[in-house]
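Amino Acid Chain and Its Fold in Token Form
===========================================
Scope: a single protein chain, as residues and as a discrete description of its fold.
Amino acid sequence: labelled as such and written in the usual single-letter residue code.
Position: the record begins directly beneath this header, with no further notes in between.
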Amino acid sequence: MGGVLPSALAAHSFLRGLPSDDAARLTEIAAEVSVPAGHRFFEENGRADRFWLIRTGHVALDMHLPGRPRLIVETLGDGDMIGISWVASPQEWQYGAEAVQPTTAFEFEAAAVIALCDSDPAFGYQLTRRLLAVASRRLHASRVRLMDLYSAPGIHAGAS
């Protein structure tokens, strides 16, 4: 890994505002990847051992439903993170992920990032805050989709 410019990594919205020393350490374990449309980043229930920060392109998070086509749960794009399942046990992907157009991203191996967090708790705290923000946004988006899916006409606040 390596070969990623600290300025390019620090400019990604997930890492914006991270101290420059921390961004520089992350560049040592980051790789820039470029994948074509249709590339599967991971499969539901597989081992979650890495994550990606999207630079360009779009990636669909999906889930398998027996006897049906894959259900797209969310589409992520520039500035988003793919893969947060590595953070907590059992480190299994909750969804699958597929590039819906050519995509470039920074890729990180979870074990290397965890080692950085363990060796520097202040860095770990900064990263944890960012991961919680991602998880919170995704949870909120899921709630909004569920409200839209299950709401009946006239139930919304202010409806007569």
